[in-house]
Amino acid sequence: MRPLFHPSIDDVTVEGILHALSDPVRASIYARLAGLDCAATCTALQQAGDRTIPKSSLSQHFRVLREAGLVRSERAGVEMHNTTRCAEIEQRFPGLIPAILSAHRVQAAGAPSPRSRVRRTATSAAKKKAKGS
Amino acid sequence: MRPLFHPSIDDVTVEGILHALSDPVRASIYARLAGLDCAATCTALQQAGDRTIPKSSLSQHFRVLREAGLVRSERAGVEMHNTTRCAEIEQRFPGLIPAILSAHRVQAAGAPSPRSRVRRTATSAAKKKAKGS
DNA sequence: TGCCGTAGTTCAAGATATATGAACTATGGA
DNA sequence: TCCATAGTTCATATATCTTGAACTACGGCA
């Protein structure tokens, strides 16, 4: 197992951050991690809404977050301690992470049903409807 | 040609916005469009940095931006007038777009070479290096 | 009206990325 | 040493992205 790669803060890109957080599962993981003031293991964040993510997928998601520079993962015995790199990112891109987390909260608050599992656009259903009419 | 689809502002998702702006070409298009206070045609935004985007790609990029709710496209004669939907999005997700645009400016300002064409993470090169050593 | 040019869209196919079960690695404890 | 736990890596099926080629829509001109 090669040692986990963490980019230097100077190599962190906006594209990487937006891409990492454009996935609802990763956004949910990151939001929960950011809400904590301590480290969390991967398995502690395995629930996304109403379903459990397979651990291989979870590992990939963490890899994306890590390589985007959003989280830091450190082995602690048999498990992994994940923490956000909020402070560093805040310094490089002021206001970016708070704005994204806030937008996610707005959306979660406004969502009528948490199980309307929407991926990226809410438009596919609407489009089909529009096409038909 | 089916009529262009624009989602209602209530159907606009954070995931969609982040995904749309996580591509450097689309981010560049959107940033330039947001900097304007008037509509722009697609061809007017065809240059991304030092290269010209094929028009089929450009069309797809505009579709993504449109379906994410970021831009509005209206046919005006033979061409297309594109405008941002900043005001609507600002109302739904306050501060999100300004924070992203600001972060992109920070990154552009800090980039040593504009032709170090970085896609999403700046890490692939660094990772190869790390692997080798 | 028919024909041509311009501006974009759609299609198709190859390249790239994502999701996940199965196999593997690393650590700690008995 | 053997086992259990927590993650990672691999392989493969699926989905998404990129882009040249073909197509559509509109306007102008005869």
Automatic annotation (TrEMBL), chains A, B:
This is ArsR/SmtB family transcription factor. Residues 116-133 have a biased composition (Basic residues). It comes from Rhodanobacter geophilus. Residues 16-98 form the HTH arsR-type domain. It comes from the Bacteria. InterPro entries: ArsR-like_HTH, HTH_ArsR_DNA-bd_dom, WH-like_DNA-bd_sf, WH_DNA-bd_sf. Residues 107-133 are annotated as: Disordered.
